[in-house]
Specification:
14 strands; alpha/beta; two-stranded antiparallel sheet
């Protein structure tokens, strides 16, 4: 099996439009949560969200191409361009040696909402001509493949909150097995539409806005947490075999050491301790074969959505997987600042973990002022923390539908 390294990362998030800006915001505890600005948002009662405000797609794409690009595809391409450039704009030995593995939860939600609005509210008898190709869930992956002329496999994973983590994990397996030399992997999501936000409100899973300080409304692992905050964005990584990266003179940023995936098989929306712990154990076993022991994990980027049940279950699953040793491992949820990016969350949060490992500074769980006795791990409350070294990091993504995905990385040796 071949070793798999990360040679490029790119993000577009509510707290940063490049990897550097994103990580600086996490360390400096800058929140991207606040009131939303979307069509129909003048209607009262919409929740706070983590929105990428001021994004002008015309500065990134020509007008003729924009008609084919939903907002989630725009995000994907901008983040992918950053990752590809950092990777050194690879020249492939053959077009089919490069692949795309991508994740999204909802795909072209903005295009769908616009079409429904045209038909049912405005009373028009047609929608925009390119609505189908803009809205289809595989549009982001296809556009990334077109952008970089990647003519190998092109997969789209729709596994709710675990989508991009699964995409990265499956790309890791493909490269390790020799099915591809280089893969652009990650995810994108743009779900801040009136219909989707109202749907999440109906589910009663969203945070209650803190009127005094709206930016602090998402409080993972805190006793006063009230729910998740929806967000939008993209996270993209360039993965390749270590041999391929070395041959072309690339500078690997990290090595992926383990990937675990397991399904609860119990409930569509209620998380399960054993299902999550099973995914963690699978990832740890694979990492151990790569020389990374459980004792080497020095930071965990938690799924940490700030729901009452979810945070408690994740605390229990970490204890079940690591035993008493988990008490020594710093853990944080960066969703407190950038919100829940759904299908993009796994990739964005894995990049946060990789940056923590490279910079040796751990992002905090912001707004954790009142600890929950049932969430009693070291959740790096309020402020970032410097560490002398990190030999391994883990990122958890636990989804509706019961899919649990865990990624482990280490420094390249």
């Amino acid at each position: 099996m071949r070793r798999v390294v990360v040679t490029g990362t790119g993000v577009l998030t509510p707290v940063g439009r490049t990897t550097e800006e994103f990580f600086a915001s996490l360390i400096e505890v800058r929140s991207g949560i606040g009131p939303v600005e979307i069509p129909l948002s003048g209607v009262s009662g919409l929740p706070v969200a983590a929105q990428i405000k001021g994004f002008d797609p015309s500065t990134h794409f020509p007008k003729e191409r924009l008609s084919q690009l939903d907002r989630f595809s725009q995000f994907a391409l901008v983040a992918a361009r950053e990752a590809w450039l950092q990777a050194g704009s690879p020249v492939l030995a053959s077009p089919d040696s490069g692949a795309v593995y991508f994740g999204t939860g909802f795909g072209g939600a903005s295009t769908l909402e616009s079409g429904y609005d045209d038909l049912f509210r405005k009373g028009l008898n047609r929608v925009k001509p390119m609505s189908v190709v803009a809205a289809m869930p595989n549009a982001a992956a296809a556009n990334v493949a077109i952008e970089f002329r990647l003519q190998g496999a092109c997969y789209t994973y729709a596994v709710a909150c675990a989508s991009s983590a699964v995409a990265i994990g499956e790309a890791f397996r493909a490269i390790a097995a020799g099915a591809a030399d280089i893969v652009v992997a990650g995810g994108a999501e743009s779900i801040l539409t009136y219909g989707i936000m109202r749907s999440w409100q109906a589910l009663m899973a969203l945070a209650v806005e803190d009127k005094a300080a709206p930016e602090t409304s998402c409080r993972p692992f805190a006793k006063d947490r009230t729910g998740l905050v929806l967000g939008e964005g993209a996270g993209v990584l360039v993965l390749e075999s270590l041999e391929h990266a070395t041959q072309r003179g690339a500078n690997p940023l990290a090595e992926i050491a383990g990937y675990g995936i397991a399904n609860d098989g119990l409930n569509l929306s209620r998380p399960d301790v054993e299902g999550q712990a099973r995914a963690i154990r699978i990832a740890l076993r694979e990492a151990e074969r790569s020389g990374v022991a459980a004792a080497d994990i020095g930071y965990i980027n938690a799924h940490g959505t700030a729901t009452k049940v979810g945070d408690k279950v994740e605390t229990q699953s970490l204890k079940a997987a690591f035993g008493t040793a988990v008490q020594r491992i710093p853990v944080s949820s960066t969703k407190a600042l950038h919100g829940h990016l759904m299908g993009a969350g796994g990739a964005v949060e894995f990049i946060a973990a990789l940056m923590a490992m490279r910079r040796r500074i751990l992002p905090p769980t912001a707004h954790l002022r009142i600890p929950d006795p049932e969430c009693d791990l070291d959740y790096i409350a309020l402020a970032s923390r410097r560490v002398p070294e990190l030999d391994g990091v883990m990122s958890n993504s636990f989804a509706f539908g019961g899919t649990n995905a865990v990624l482990i990385a280490r420094p390249v040796q």
